[in-house]
Write a structure and sequence with these properties.
Layout: H1 2-10, E1 17-18, E2 21-22, H2 26-35, H3 45-57, H4 70-79, H5 87-110, H6 134-146, H7 150-163, H8 168-183, H9 186-197
Length: 204
């Protein structure tokens, strides 16, 4: 299959690129597609449109859509639908869409920052502003937590306590590893599939 061939040709443990664009987590993406038996993820036009809208909307969160290859993906989305488009082009498009979604999810979850520019002892405080009664906010928070996959919640809780003893640079490195581990869990496949199918995830 074209996707499997492209992954094994273009990915290596040190670096990976598709169409001269960097892939941040080649191991995660390889495992993700292996779970799907290397079937395409982005073969539905509606799912691609949703992804491109999400990437464009990242600007509202202070992010740069071009960090998620928006222009390239928009161009490839048209090319891969043209008669005579190659299997390799469609495979590369599929992989880049998945990379873009994973990268956007990571940045929305952990932020986009170069931790080396900070003092490792630097930290910041947070305040909780309540727009509704505390008991309502608490119930909503609990409902949001228990709606998430149990593996991800367990990893998040363990990391929350561990990162308190780390400097900011080390905490970001550790967070990257946790994110990669989370993305290799079956719940990651379900989460991406739910996004594509426009439904709520059905966590195990």
């Amino acid at each position: 299959m074209a996707i499997e061939a492209l992954i094994y040709d273009a990915f290596d443990p040190v670096s990976a690129e598709i169409r001269s664009l960097r892939i941040a987590w080649p191991g995660v993406i390889k495992e993700f597609y292996a779970q799907r038996e290397f079937r395409p993820v982005w073969d539905r036009e509606a799912a691609v449109s949703d992804l491109l809208r999400a990437l464009s909307a990242s600007r509202e969160d202070g992010l740069d859509p071009e960090d998620y290859y928006l222009s390239t993906l928009t161009t490839l989305a048209t090319k891969q639908r043209e008669p005579g488009s190659s299997d390799e082009l469609r495979a590369g498009f599929d992989l880049l869409c998945t990379e873009a979604l994973l990268r956007l999810a990571y940045h929305l979850s952990f932020g986009k920052v170069d931790p080396s520019s900070f003092d490792t002892a630097w930290n910041y405080g947070r305040t909780l502003q309540l727009d509704r009664p505390f008991d309502v906010e608490l119930e909503n928070l609990v409902a949001a937590i228990i709606s998430k996959p149990r593996v991800a919640v367990a990893m998040g809780k363990e990391f929350f306590y561990r990162q308190a003893e780390l400097g900011i640079a080390a905490a970001y490195d550790a967070a990257s590893q946790i994110m990669a581990c989370n993305m290799m869990d079956e719940s990651a496949l379900e989460g991406v599939q739910a996004f594509i199918e426009k439904r709520k995830p059905r966590w195990q």
